[in-house]
Amino acid sequence: xxPHDTGVxxxxxxxxxxxxxxxxxxxxxxxxxxxxxxxxxxxPAAPPCFRLETAGDGIATLVFDCPDSxxxxxxxxxxLELEQHLAALAADTGTRGLILTSAKxxxxxxxxxxxxxxxxxxxxxxxxxxxxxRVFTLxxxxxxxxxxxxxxxxxxGGFELALACRHRIASDHRSxxxxxxxxxxxxxxxxxxxxxxxxxxxxxxxxPLVLKGSLLPAPVALRxxxxxxxxxxxxxxxxxxxxxxxxxxxxxTRLRARCLHLPGIRHLYHRLALRQLRxxxxxxxxxxxxxxxxxxxxVGTSMRRSLELERSAFAGxxxxxxxxxxxxxxxxxxxxxxxxxxxxxxAPVERVAVVGAGVMGAGIAYWLAARGLHVLLxxxxxxxxxxxxxxxxxxxDDAVRRRxxxxxxxxxxxxxxAASSRPVPLHRFxxxxxxxxxxxxxxxxxxxxxxxxxxxxxxxxSNTSALPITQLAAxxxxxxxxxxxxxxxxxxxxxxxxxxxxxxxxxDAVATAVGLVQTVGKLPVLARDKPGFLVNRVLMxxxxxxxxxxxxxxTATTIDHAMLxxxxxxxxxxLLDEVGLDVALHVGETLAPAFDHFPPAPLLLREMxxxxxxxxxxxxxxxxxxxxxxxxAGLAALALPSRRGQPxxxxxxxxxxxxxxxxxxxxxxxxxxYLAGLLEEEAARCLREGIADNAGAIDFAMVAGTGYPPFRxxxxxxxxLRDQPRTTNQ
Amino acid sequence: xxxxxxxxxxPRDRPALVVVDGLRxxxxxxxxxxxxxxAVDLARACGSALLLRQGIDPAVIDEVVFGCVSQPxxxxxxxxxxxxxxxxxxxxxxxxxxxxxxSGLEALFTAHQRLLSGHGEVxxxxxxxxxxxxxxxxxxxxxxxxxxxxAARTPWARLAALAAFRPGQLAPVxxxxxxxSDPVSGLNMGExxxxxxxxxxxxxxxxxxxxxxxxxxxxxxREHHAxxxxxxxxxxxxxxxxxxxxxxxxxxxxDLESLGKxxxxxxxxxxxxxxxxxxxxITDGAAALLVAGEEAxxxxxxxxxxxxxxxxxxxxxxxxxxxxxxRAIAAACRRTALKPDDADVIEINEAxxxxxxxxxxxxxxxxxxxxxxxDQPLGDIDPARLNQRGGAIALGHPVGATGARLxxxxxxxxxxTGGRRALVSACVGGGQGVALWLENPAAGRPxxxxxxxxxxxxx
Lengths: 730, 459
Description:
The complex is a heterodimer.
Chain A: H1 11-16, E1 50-54, E2 59-64, E3 73-74, H2 76-91, E4 97-102, E5 107-109, E6 111-112, H3 114-119, H4 122-140, E7 146-150, E8 153-155, H5 157-163, E9 167-171, E10 177-179, H6 193-201, H7 203-212, E11 215-217, H8 218-224, E12 229-231, H9 236-246, H10 255-259, H11 265-281, H12 286-299, H13 303-317, H14 321-337, E13 351-355, H15 359-370, E14 374-378, H16 382-401, H17 407-415, E15 417-420, E16 431-434, H18 440-451, E17 459-462, H19 469-473, E18 482-487, E19 496-501, H20 507-519, E20 523-526, H21 535-551, H22 556-566, H23 572-579, H24 581-591, H25 603-610, E21 623-624, H26 631-639, E22 648-649, H27 651-656, H28 671-689, H29 695-706, H30 715-718
Parallel strand pairs in A: 2-4, 3-6, 4-7, 5-8, 7-9, 8-10, 9-12, 13-14, 13-16, 14-15, 16-17, 17-18, 19-20
Antiparallel strand pairs in A: 1-2, 10-11, 18-19, 21-22
Helix pairs in contact in A: 2-4, 4-13, 5-6, 6-7, 6-12, 7-12, 11-12, 12-13, 15-16, 16-17, 21-23, 21-24, 21-28, 22-28, 23-24
Chain B: E1 17-24, E2 28-29, H1 39-54, E3 63-67, H2 78-85, E4 94-97, H3 103-116, E5 122-130, E6 136-138, H4 140-151, H5 155-163, H6 167-170, E7 172-174, H7 175-179, E8 181-182, E9 187-188, H8 189-199, H9 204-220, H10 222-226, H11 256-261, E10 283-293, H12 294-300, E11 306-315, H13 324-336, E12 345-348, H14 353-364, H15 366-371, H16 392-395, H17 399-417, E13 421-428, E14 432-439
Parallel strand pairs in B: 3-4, 3-5, 12-13
Antiparallel strand pairs in B: 1-10, 1-11, 2-10, 5-10, 6-7, 8-9, 11-14, 13-14
Helix pairs in contact in B: 1-2, 3-17, 4-5, 8-14
């Protein structure tokens, strides 16, 4: 029997040589061995994750450093290890203070180990929650000052650990991001986060943070009271030590904030907050509601009781379908961030020429420049460039207003964009992204013209949404260096980019494109070169049928509200307005002949375009879009503040509709099911045709690319065509 | 008095400086199309367009040198700020130079001297000026009051400090007006021109005719100018504004009658002859040149637009600053053993029509030459060769940028016409003059398409 299998290290053993890491000899229960909750089945000792360092002044430092990993994550083994350290420190009379810190360069603690959590069964998870709560309570009750010295990501369980410390000090480094993102996974902060955060900063401040799951940069975290002090990374260790020795009184919630915690008042707050939440989520996201409930009830009861509430809420959420989908999507997203191409070597890309200064070209140029690349924006004339640059400037202004960038960063990023209508040499640009009008001949002519100005190794990309990549590539100087790179509109809001290798694309070219997408912080999905690629193809029957339903007499609001209730961020007709009816029709007409099962694009769409109804771009489509400024708009907004920004259905569109086909073959209450079914059908066809690697990728692309309701996991998950991730009760 | 310069033609073993390429922004009257851009914005616009057009790696630049007269308060060393904003890497240094109206030329002289002393081979030089954005200032008395107000700690002291202000102390001092005045002679630039008009007998009619010729030539050759202009995109407005692509000071509709109607601006007592119509315009603009040692240009495979063969900077009476070119041309001619007649292209900056005409007279007429400090006249300036494509009266005079524009324009005119040599000169506020000789390596082979042709990518 392994001598280390007891799972317990006596405190005196741990402290006898403080510099020596305690050997927490905990077995790693192989998850599939069901129901086994145990100690001592003979697996080798897990390597230690905590290093205890003590100085002569009695201040101990626990350094979190998961071996063989980029990130620090909390799991059963290292929680037990932490518990032993804390118990030993509590018993040691010589200790005067404790600093918790991380040895990783850009991560404090990324949270709980989600992979293990996913594979664990219900009893194991419940145990884990109990263990975490116990360890953090132990930390909170230590008889000396405790300080979390936070540098790098401090999320979920990591922040819950920091919350259990008496003080929190953070570095102002860019990588320092603090928050509780659990609700995004369909869970709630279960290791005391839902209990301690409202007690620290007040219900009114804590609730939005937990419901949104936002991760805050250090200065904002300081303003909101999540941390007590923010210092330069180089000063973090010293200042943490100073905080321990000076031991100021811990931060207390402002009296005004605590008024909200009074009985009656907090219940009223609960009702109001719940109503607001449901307006946004339409009741599809139980985790947010649970989190709200636990926090509200928690502030009115004892710590112990509040932790129990957390634990039972967590257990209640875990088996939910939506939780499984949200967690699954999280892993899909992580996978996309790390996507690599077999046999492909990515070349670095620092300078990109974007050819075509339309809406897409400008959007791409903005995003690349904001993410640190040097961009040349090319067009054939100065006027479109002037318009594009003006739009980009406004976007930077907006980013500054939203505090995504400082004014200085925005200016520098804007200066990274050069615009020219002259045929300047392109050989210094490692990638060319073409965003010219969707016309095969124009694009091919353009490639031939650009070829004489570019270097041989350049990566060529087309932002086409419908034209075949292989055919486009034929006009490029080197088809093996050509790929489709499909950005979605608006570029700065849509996280997904479809990468479409052509018939001759080399693995290196695809890898370079994937690398480029990842460096600029977007999520790549590989799609096969068939008309519409993946997202547009799945979306198109859905959009076209929505138009047909409208034509058959359903109102725009009926159709759009049905899909909003389904969980879509925007109804199909509103989406068509945003895309532009002419653009949508063009895509529809390109796709219809390509697939036998696609019906021709609805006549109504053509008629609307002929009537000059183009969508948001000219203010009239299925809806009337008011101009955003002007005194008339201001007056209207004053009169109807609730309708602000909400477009009204366009009566002209309704007049054009009707008279074709049956009246209302789909009843109003069947719209959502019917339209959602179309998405599923087409997604299933894409899966069969191998448009994407697997069902997970298709679902992920639909969620990231169209806002398909994440809690449903994706169209294939809803259709039951996904390999079910192992359920918790296996 | 004999100037202490001796004829020293540049020896063959000294590295020669060549102009590879250049671009400028449109020159726009102040408070018009470019008013929202700072001098640095303008320099960034033409500098980055130039680097882009050449397709060079900015890391090969050894130093960036730009001239700027009224340096923006928010950019100490505007050349450095402009360089970084053009995408020049941080390890490349930058310096701002100031020789008033010759600052753009001074940038090139600096590059040449760095080359000669072995401090680099490739330079991005030029000039920038936003005369729209020359700040309003607070008078000395007002400044004291503001400082007292800032130092006041208690509300009572603050109130007292506020009460101490007198209305006159709040009146702004116009920086542009100060910049265009010479504190030594006590005259503003227009008054120095009036002085030359009186002393050299330059009539109002001569001045107006000269100004008219400037507008006519500039208009006639606007295609040629377009070849050296890069469009500027102004993005500050609430609505998208059209790209700025053309100089906006040229008046194709100007005639002697309309010019004759303008009232003298500097001597209003009667008899004054210098009007806004026959003076240079107050303008925003910037120009950039890529210059290099001849050897470095060859190594990089760059084309050579013009070679610098010699130059001189000299001083003169600040009250007659307009005569600056006379001595400077004489000195530059001695150094190169050339005479004005050897130049196929002559550019004398048109600060004022009266001043250019006085310079021409001083170079041609023995009595006038003596007045200007020359023993002998150097020879006639052929009016046909002088400012053939218009000058600052039509195009405008953004003080820091003009020098660089003159070099670019002269070099391109040589290339265009196939001429051999160009003489570039300018008077400098405060009593100086500069002159520069350029040589066309492709002399005798006119290249009329140079104005519209873009360079081939060098692979």
